[in-house]
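The protein record quoted in full:

***
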Amino acid sequence: MEDLLYAFGPAPLLSVEQILASILASFVLSMASATVYRWTYQGFSYSRAFVHSQVLGSVISCMMIMAIGNNLARGLGIVGTLAIIRFRTPIRDPRDIIFLFMGLGAGIASGAGAYAIAVSGTAVFCAVALFLHWSPFASRREYEGLLRYMRRPDAPSQSRIEETLHKYCSSYLLVAVREAVQGDLIEHSYQIRLADPAYRSDLIQKLNAIEGVSDVSLLMQRSTVEI
């Protein structure tokens, strides 16, 4: 009977100081995570309203946890109320959802009075987010491209072309050879991978300087787009 009264009875009243301390903690911690999100954001459509929603959501979740307390019935009632509300704003980036959860987590921990968990969790989350932003972890930067040039059939320059490709490319493969300008020129097409993205202009310049080579073009093909 006592357990039922504890679960379904009135929630313990908090003092004004406890309420203000919990709300202030949720606000400060969510501001910290929102600031890290703003520093590390790399998308195209930055939303100021979304950053605000992280902070406001943290304060609201803190208030709800304090209102629920240890009351099971009140918690079920709030869950049912929230199930009626349908948010139609799409969140396309999974990273945005994680930061939104971080704000809610800080508010829940602050509302429950677990300040040590709230502070240490926010600090570790922000540190990990900054580390992943500045480190090359999970990055796939492959600078591949399609190289084309014209060469006179009688020009003894193929060996110099091979030496140039070997110098500036980590790998290259001849994919097509065809006659052009009624057989006066031969068009070569290579699938290449640059050793460094800064070598693009140097490669084109060196090939153009070779006797018998003309119309050098390099079309970069980024296999992955990182945002």
